[in-house]
Amino acid sequence: MAGEALSGICLHCAELLASVPLSVLLVTFVATLSGLFVLFYITLYTVAPVPRKPFPEEKKYRTLLKDGSITEPLQLPCWQDALDAQKRPGRILDHSSMEDADLFISLVVPAYNEEDRLGGMLEEAVDYLEKVYGTVTDSVNGADTAAAEKAVRQRKPANGHANGTAAHRPVHDNKGWEIIIVSDGSKDKTEETAFAFARDHQLSIHPKGHAGPWTPGAHEGVRIPSGTIRVVTLTENRGKGGAVTHGMRHVRGQYVVFADADGASKFEDLGKLVAACQAIEDVQGRGVAVGSRAHMVGSEAVVKVCLSSFLSAANGWALTDGPCDSARNCATSSCILFT
């Protein structure tokens, strides 16, 4: 009896539904979906964490003086503060108030407990940056450096005219670089490792070379100018995204790129990113270039980085961007270059 009653109810409901105009059903369906979307958005907005503002001490950096001593915390430049000071209801931001770039390129490195891998990554980074954008080793590298710079400077003309800021004089003739290491609440000796690396490569006539993912063999390091490596300390962990954003807001370069401290990025490819960014810049010099490592799936360096990340995850899940569950996940990570 209960089954027959239930069948009768279902049949009655079906008849009522069939009598409803199709337009009413469509409106009801769309309204339901819209309501669910709004509910989902409100829920997401409610539970999503609000990024905290940086503490005053996090807007400072330390670096090395010419004698190798560590400076007291110094105030970081911040182009974001200049824009925030202009914010008014209905007011259009004037980007001309931003300070001009002091350097050609800045490298932001988010680092959380990276004392074991930071040395190799920095070795490969400074070797490329100093040879291509530096001034210390120009007389040593000679034609090789000049050729590398020429390849980086090339821009594609658009409609017969130089694209973007190519018509303007580049910052210091494409010279000058810095590395900003953002220690994201590290508990190990990440910062000490950075200072030790900078001191040796700044003071030693023959700096000790560190093996990296792309340069596993023994080699001599390159000398670097004082103050090119800056260390920013975040008192509380903000995650990889927060560390990258914090570093990006305090750069001095015309171009800025970020790279992970694990050394997965091949710095010899940086020139391709710069050239790609220059090729699409608008008249105000704005552009974004994104590089993919998808073509390197299965390469030894990528597999080593993924395995190392997986082992780190297994030993406490102390990762800024989660464990690596396959070589493809690591290989398809992107390097982004802003200007």
From TrEMBL:
<keyword id="KW-1133">Transmembrane helix</keyword>
<dbReference type="InterPro" id="IPR001173">
    <property type="entry name" value="Glyco_trans_2-like"/>
</dbReference>
<protein>
    <recommendedName>
        <fullName>Glycosyltransferase 2-like domain-containing protein</fullName>
    </recommendedName>
</protein>
<keyword id="KW-0472">Membrane</keyword>
<keyword id="KW-0812">Transmembrane</keyword>
<dbReference type="InterPro" id="IPR029044">
    <property type="entry name" value="Nucleotide-diphossugar_trans"/>
</dbReference>
<dbReference type="Pfam" id="PF00535">
    <property type="entry name" value="Glycos_transf_2"/>
</dbReference>
<dbReference type="GO" id="GO:0005789">
    <property type="term" value="C:endoplasmic reticulum membrane"/>
</dbReference>
<feature type="domain" description="Glycosyltransferase 2-like">
    <location>
        <begin position="228"/>
        <end position="284"/>
    </location>
</feature>
<feature type="transmembrane region" description="Helical">
    <location>
        <begin position="24"/>
        <end position="47"/>
    </location>
</feature>
<dbReference type="GO" id="GO:0006487">
    <property type="term" value="P:protein N-linked glycosylation"/>
</dbReference>
